[in-house]
Write a structure and sequence with these properties.
The chain is of the alpha+beta class and 97 residues long. It has a single domain, classed as 2-Layer Sandwich (Alpha-Beta Plaits), CATH 3.30.70. Helix content is 26%, strand content 32%. A three-stranded antiparallel beta sheet has the order 3-5-4, with helices on one face. Strand 1 and strand 2 form a beta hairpin. Helix 1 runs antiparallel to helix 2. The longest helix is centred in the last third of the chain and has 14 residues. It starts with a strand and ends with a helix.
Length: 97
């Protein structure tokens, strides 16, 4: 961002906006209808709203097959390192795979 000082005509560089940290989580689990709500509940309990959620089903055409799995990717802005690590620990406990 560049601004021009009206009095002197000099070009001055504005202060860069501070970057907001974005925590990214990826969960691999069995294809279970309750998996997505379980994952989102971890964030809701911390009063966090994910900025992006993406769920991909794998294992072929039939998501009910025993080998079927889900990949749940969640991004949350403004979460610090300690909170991110605590969330990751919770996700490992509730989604055993």
């Amino acid at each position: 961002m560049t601004s021009k000082d009206a009095n002197s005509g000099d070009q001055t560089s504005g202060a860069p906006e501070e970057a907001v940290p974005v925590a990214c989580f990826s969960v691999l689990t069995e294809a279970d209808p309750s998996a997505v709500p379980w994952v989102l509940e971890i964030f809701a309990l911390r009063d966090l709203i994910p900025s992006q959620i993406h769920v991909t089903g794998g294992g072929g055409e039939n998501l009910r097959a025993p080998e079927a799995e889900l990949v749940i990717d969640v991004q949350v802005s403004g979460v610090g390192r300690e909170a991110s690590e605590a969330i990751a620990r919770k996700l490992r406990v509730i989604i055993p795979y």
